[in-house]
Amino acid sequence: MNKKFQVVGIGNALVDILSHVEEGFLAENGVEKGIMQLIDTARAAELYDRMGPAQEVSGGSAANTIAGIAALGGRTAYVGKVRDDQLGAIFAHDIRAQGAVYETPLAGAEAGAETGRCMVLVTPDGERSMNTYLGVSEHLAPGDIDESMMAQAEWIYLEGYRFDGPESHEAFAKAIRACRGAGGRVSLTLSDPFCVERHRDAFREMIRDHVDLLFCNIHEMQAMYHANDLQAAMEMAAAEVDIVVCTASEDGAYILNGGGMEHAHAVPTEINDATGAGDLFAAGFLYGLTQGYDMLTCGRMGCVAAAEVISHIGARPERDLMELFREHGLV
């Protein structure tokens, strides 16, 4: 399939603000560890004032994935809404600098909301607790979806977090119609177990009817299928989706396809910041898939990319991923 884009991502467009904190900081400031919490502008300002030194980088889960694929040389584009403000300019410049096409119209002052941001608090164990002000990103609407771009995609990659917007379901539906109508395929990441709880029925309908590749971790998988046993949950998912990829932290990832299951082992590394592990896993996997590699190799590429990104602060790779793939004998 020779299309302009190998993968087009659709999701949040945020600027990540990352800071290392002690465990006590979370309790003192009412932050629940290890999950993503939605916050408003006032809460974002409050946390920022208390965080201390921080690093600001463009982010958003699916944007990290698209940046990773672009860094590997994949043909990518991204759709996510920012405001025409300072943080919006940072996001747009950075995603384009990664090599991705970014043409989503900027929201003006009349939008009211500002460019979204995610306060990422990293504790000494490497776990990240995310406090996200979605801002204008929440208002991604059907009008922001360019049907011709979707039709030019081999795959679209949908971010589960974006289900929290009032018009985002309709935006996803428009993108799916345009992509599948032109022979493209659809992938979805479930993003977060609490996101699954909020939108289980809508997710389940989309998965059954429109999704060709499902990304999730073990917690999201069990939340979606209400199964305490991981194997049972994965089998339920595999009955509905052609390709199911379930990440399991230090146990690597399980790939279900064509009635069989393969296991890609994790790559040992020191965890400095778990931010972006799933995002970069998806980047490695989708890159391999669009290059025609077998499923197990795709999974191993995902594990290599994930290991690289958790070895340092921030959700974007610092080492050349293709070089790492060569070192592991994958290309």
What does it look like?
The chain is of the alpha/beta class. It has one domain (5-13, 60-104, 137-327): Ribokinase (UDP-N-acetylmuramoyl-L-alanine:D-glutamate ligase, 3-Layer(aba) Sandwich), CATH 3.40.1190.20. Helices cover 40% and strands 22% of the residues. The chain has twelve helices and 14 strands. The chain has helices at 23-28, 41-51, 61-71, 86-97, 147-151, 168-181, 193-210, 218-225, 230-238, 277-290, 295-310, 321-327, and strands at residues 5-10, 14-20, 36-38, 55-59, 76-79, 101-102, 116-122, 128-133, 153-159, 185-189, 213-217, 243-247, 253-257, 260-264. Strand 10 (185-189), helix 7 (193-210) and strand 11 (213-217) form a beta-alpha-beta unit. Helix 3 (61-71) packs across helix 10 (277-290) and helix 7 (193-210) packs across helix 8. The longest helix has 18 residues, at 193-210. The chain is globular, with a radius of gyration of 18 Å. The mean pLDDT is 93.
Secondary-structure blueprint:
Blueprint (H helix, E strand, L loop, with lengths): L4 E6 L3 E7 L2 H6 L7 E3 L2 H11 L3 E5 L1 H11 L4 E4 L6 H12 L3 E2 L13 E7 L5 E6 L13 H5 L1 E7 L8 H14 L3 E5 L3 H18 L2 E5 H8 L4 H9 L4 E5 L5 E5 L2 E5 L12 H14 L4 H16 L10 H7 L4
Parallel strand pairs: 1-5, 1-9, 2-7, 3-8, 5-6, 9-10, 10-11, 11-12
Antiparallel strand pairs: 2-4, 7-8, 12-13, 13-14
Helix pairs in contact: 3-10, 7-8, 8-9, 10-11
